[in-house]
Structures
1.
Amino acid sequence: MAQSGFEGFEKRLELNFFGDDPMMNIGIGLRQLSFESVQEILDAVQCTVVSAMGNQYFDAYVLSE
Amino acid sequence: SSLFVYPTKIIIKTCGTTQLLKSISPLLSHAHDIGLNVCGCRYTRGNFIFPKAQPFPHTSFKEEVMYLEESLPNSLCYRKASVMPSNKTTHSWHVYSASTDEYHMVHHMSNVFTMEVCMTELDRVLARKFYQHSGNGNSGDISGKEMTMATGINDIIPSALICDFSFDPCGYSMNGVNGVHYSTIHVTPEDGYSYASFELMGFTDDSDDIDRILNKVVQIFRPSTMSVSTTCASHDMSMHVKNAIEQNGLIHRSCTIDEFPAAGSIVFQTFTTRRK
């Protein structure tokens, strides 16, 4: 095995939320977070968005790294 | 790496030396600002190939658990951390989960499962397909699409819309969007530490299709070592996983089962080729 290289094994985090946000019941909830807020969260991880897609149910982002 | 944002759920999966757990604090803060509070948390990972390269708080599972405990509110009172072993010390599944009393009860009625597949020592010829052709000048989006088609990744779940990206000089990530469900693939093809992952979220009554999906995944990468972790899956689905992988010549080496708050039952199975 190489002494050092790019670590492939991922870390995976899933968080679930509840609340009285009326936007949650019409399929928005966390999806109303601005792109700036999402990027601020990703800054903490040292990632950026390289590609994005979404449908009526959720948003999906491919990240750097 | 991938990020999925649902109305009440967020999933972040990152590789390399990213400090994933540092996302918790800003995430909870932004969610709180729009009236949402965390009620369930699940953190999972396999064994790092280069553990000494990981920065804080990922220097050890103990450090990760301490960081999680400090980052989550006390309302998540059901908490559990466990390392699920296999027959090899180099392959184990690290799980931390926490939930509120209410979410613990609701989650038990869930009919959604997740499957996390980790593959190492990929077939060298197949791994070469995840290198960009030097000098073609294509963007990561265009090269990513070419890789998706050339490898057959687009056939794993034919109805899914795919968002793909290839990295320079090598590496690949894609997200599949299929109705309410997602799938994702990440590839690090370098010889000596090649790695690919596949993840799928689906309904628990989709067991029959798992055989065909796993068949395709194994044939695209032909790994020497493979682990599959299923969360909230039925016994029937775990058997489908085992049978589908064994049909591709890998040998079932271990199976560990455990129960977690906010996650339910997790089944961790490992497989290797005969030459291992």
2.
Amino acid sequence: ELDDGLDEAFSRLAESRTNP
Amino acid sequence: GGVGPMSGSYAAPKSVWMPAMKAKGLEISGTFARRMGTVYMDLLLTNKALQVMSDFAIQFNRNSFGLAPAAPLQIHAPLAPNQTVDVSLPLSTVGSVMKMDPLNNLQVAVKNNIDVFYFSTLYPLHILFVEDGKMDRQMFLATWKDIPNENEAQFHIKDCPLNSDVSTNKLQSSNIFTIAKRNVEGQDMLYQSLKLTNGIWVLAELRIQPSNPSYTLSLKCRAPEVSQHVYQAYETILKN
């Protein structure tokens, strides 16, 4: 599967929204 | 109205928009729907007068999203006293635009052989959510970052006992698309997008906690005045 870095970026976004 | 995932976006039952006593016996009930990419005003006309009604026509005042009849009101035969007719009026979204207060207010004029009558009604914003409203993931992340925090609005959707998969499907059948889903500390975070007929994008984060029937909806949009109406659309879709 092509890793375009976006999966990781969404994880970081969700993480930052939960623990700002 | 279509409610299930395969039957298109949610349509409320018809309600009375113009009572007969205010229109010399013409009663109009209606609702709005989106079917196969077209917005419709579904109407029920009842003749509660003692004379036959004919020569019907309809016109809209300018409105926030340029809604306008895409065809004449097709009532093929005169309406006898106590008779009712169902009409589905296709609408276009390229009419003249004027910002209304509230934003989703629509002023309508209906004429028949007796007189011209006026009423106004509110349309649910989800009839304007287009089928190609799924934003590219990279674009979503960039846009989310780019829209300032002042443009973020947060709402609570109370008493919504659905899980995130059921919610995702319900929202998708009304053209609210889930782009990514993450689970952080036991709560589901859904990242979603929708696009209005006038090209305005709305980005959403929907938080669902397994033990909490109240969802948290955060909306980011460059035109933040639509957020309140988008929230109401979420409420309507998720609870019907």
